[in-house]
Amino acid sequence: MSVVAAAELREVRLDAESLRAVTATLAARAPAHDADGSFPWPGIQAVHEAGLLTASVSERDGGRGLSARETVEIFSALGRGDPSVALITAMTVAQHAFQAASPTWPAELYAKALRESAERPTLLNAVRAEPELGAPARGGLPATTARRTADGWSVSGRKAFATGSEGLAYHLVWVVTDEPDRRVGHVIVPGDDPGVRVERTWDHLGMRASATHDVVYGDVRVPFENFTGAPVGTVPNNGVILGPSVLAVPALYVGVAQAALVAFAEYARERVPTSLGRPIATLERIQVVAGEARAQITQAELVLSAAAGRIDEGAPDAASLGVLKLLTSRGAISAVQGLVAAIGNPGLTRGLPFERHLRDVLCARPHPPQDDAALLAAGQALLLS
Description:
alpha+beta, Butyryl-Coa Dehydrogenase, subunit A, domain 1, Butyryl-CoA Dehydrogenase, subunit A, domain 2, Butyryl-CoA Dehydrogenase, subunit A, domain 3, 3 domains, eight-stranded mixed beta sheet, disordered N terminus
């Protein structure tokens, strides 16, 4: 077991009442963070206090591990509250899950990160995209370089779309080395290093509180053991780890659609036009819209549940998981779009939550695998295997 004892990590609270409380805490502040793009520290603190940031830490390192079904429950709940907080959380949970599946951190550094995680929110993320490169999932080598020095590495370069940037305790930076036989991989960089500079470039349609800014690394010095790489061309740019954490992002966007449906039901019961004299919830047209959204969301929930079952049984399928993301995001987006369209002008009014839910759920599309990549992989698996 790690030098960090299990008792030192936060207790993971996954009961329905605890998850509802976290959802409510996040939802109360989500509109304000969306409006000004501020970092959602209160929501992150609530997630930390519920033990969710370290829920995927392995038993080997003093944690409990996280099943796929639990992952879906957690991130649906967080997505219903504030999907920006959910996304930042998903990045941290994924890094602990990757460490559980295939340890790459120096033992002492990971133990230090876990000790810090027991005391306060300690956010992690793999920082990979670049302004020129785009998404690594599409191929290409990073321009960000790890230059060998006498006692370690010097990391320099600029990254884009670094979710959680302003709050990250550790950046896992995708780099290529300057060695004669170049290697590519992640180098672990402390977020508080003076050579790390966050540039607030994130001014997005949705997920506005996710702090997905650019980060500039200027001659950041780290020890040799902070880099684990492989020769260029021997590893995929965006290798898939078929564990429970792969369901976190799809689940959080389904959570957005669930929140929109709840808001729609409340609005329909309360909205009484003078020309009608009764709530619009009594109109068959509104009932059909609600039923259609419920059907689309239920379909997405069932897809998530089936995938979670396969993962927990030890039988994941990369091509199927790509299609899962496509199906759940399409269902969530279609449901919210239908609800907003039925409401009319109030659905696009900033004083109501619908336009925020719509903006947030549309952000499911850029997450890898994007639709064309998912369909290509599924088609190739069917036709070329």
